[in-house]
Amino acid sequence: MKYQIPGWEVNPATILTFKRYNKTIEKMKKCEPNLSLLQENGRMAVNRMRVVNGSAEHEHIRTHLDGIPASEIEKKLCVRSPWHLAMTSFYDYPQSADPDESRFLGEIVFHVDVEHGLHPCPVCGNLCKVKEYEVRKYYHTRTLDCKTAIIAKVPKLYCPADGYPQLRVPWARARSSYTLFFERAVITELLEERTVNSVSRMLGTTNSIVGTIVEYRIGVTLQRMDLSHVHTIYIDESSWKVGHKYVTLVYDQCRRLIFACEGKDSGTVTLLKDWLILHNGDPEKITNVSCDMGLAYPKGVRLNFPNAVITYDKFHVIKLVTEAFNEVLDRQNQEDRNIKWFRKRAFHSRSLSETDEKRLNTITDDYREIGHNYRLLMVISKIYDYGDKQMADFYFDLWYEDVGRYGAPEMKRAADSLMNRKEDILRWYDSRINNGIVEGMNTQFKLLIRRARGFTNVNHLIAMSYLLFSQLPLFYDSQELMCLNVEPSESEASS
């Protein structure tokens, strides 16, 4: 005996449990309240339109949709044999107080059915019988300022070799509730430097869905990344969330992001090595590494890249001494007007007026401790301005001796740290690499964090980083390209 649902025939023998059968019925009713109007016998020659909440307010939408042939709609939706359009429904939205919902005029639903008979297995290609059907809803890009969706009965096949695969629909990727056009719209809008919140509102979805779509597309693309050319890498971290939440970013000599992961310990360098090997890279080809002066990254580099030499980034060298000098200033009387002025203007000496320069010199003469340590800071900041490495080495030793004589305890600790790393610091004169590239990209990463405030998942943020900074062509397989009706280009590659 068959349970007859108007428009949909479901054999109880194909339903695993009665509970699941009831869920199927409820899902079908939710998608289409009046199932009797979905009764179709064969392919329709023209599109048949129905109105759920009939009002004259959006008559132009209903009239427009009612006059479009089914074949034209199928072409736009990438609905092709054995699939066909059964009917189009338009739902008027009730008045909503939510501004994100009120910007949509309603919802257009395209009901799609599949031809009866045998279908090819998506795994092996053999013709198989249909075991059961699953009603699925796929969200599409806006049509006439209305939310748009496709509802389809998707067959689950019985294949003796591959079990029970589900027939793949041409308008969406496997296990996705969004059409390829929708996913492409998400990527396009994000590349236009829109925020995640604005994209989700524009397309009528959530920030989490936007992140999931980006993560999938980037994941497929990264499988085809080739790192065989990499010989120089730049490593740095950037905070993405309050509470010591960091992301390690690695760039190659072409300023492309090649690796990103959560954390900033030496283990991230080990993950980088595995990532290189996975993508045709060779750890032994890495000859130059630029990183900060922390202990984690140099330790990881020495363990995983035997032929690499480390060049400490000059930005972090100057930063270490600057932080020590700020500690000296913190010990001074913070209510002193001269101290307040000096703290604000001392680090902008290049833009000081003649009057301000005189006042700065007066302060450094009157406050001996500040004056001595400020001059030591200025000397080390010019360590990269000498003509050659030998001269820089000579003046570095003189500076270290002066710090020992006149420097404050904070400056002495910083100088000791630099002296222990002198060889790697002055290696800049040989390699001429620094993290200026990374620092510039980190600025872009900070802007990305602002754009991606809707992301609470660090993996989604990392996927966005790859999308914007890796310069990789997005990968679409041949069936996806056929659906999107585009040719492989610089931003797309076919298998």
Question: How would you explain this protein's 3D organization?
Answer:
There is one protein chain. The chain folds into 3 domains: 3-174, no CATH class; 232-313 and 434-440, Nucleotidyltransferase, domain 5 (2-Layer Sandwich); 314-431. The chain is 44% helix and 19% strand. It has 20 helices and 15 strands. The protein has helices at residues 18-31, 59-66, 70-77, 99-102, 180-191, 196-203, 207-222, 267-278, 296-304, 314-330, 337-345, 354-366, 368-380, 389-406, 409-420, 422-426, 428-431, 436-451, 458-469, 478-484, and strands at 3-5, 8-10, 49-51, 83-92, 106-114, 119-120, 127-143, 146-158, 232-241, 245-252, 257-262, 288-291, 309-312, 474-475, 492-493. The protein has a 6-stranded mixed sheet with strand order 3-4-5-8-7-6. Strands 11-10-9-12-13 form a 5-stranded mixed sheet, sandwiched between helices. The protein has a two-stranded antiparallel ribbon with strand order 1-2. A hairpin with a 2-residue loop joins strand 1 (3-5) and strand 2 (8-10). The model is unreliable at 1-22, 31-51 and 488-495 (pLDDT under 50).
Task: Briefly say what this structure is.
With 495 residues, the chain is α/β, with parallel strands linked by helices. Helix content is 44%, strand content 19%. The strands form 4 sheets. A 6-stranded mixed β-sheet has the order 3-4-5-8-7-6. Strands 11-10-9-12-13 form a 5-stranded mixed β-sheet, with helices on both faces.
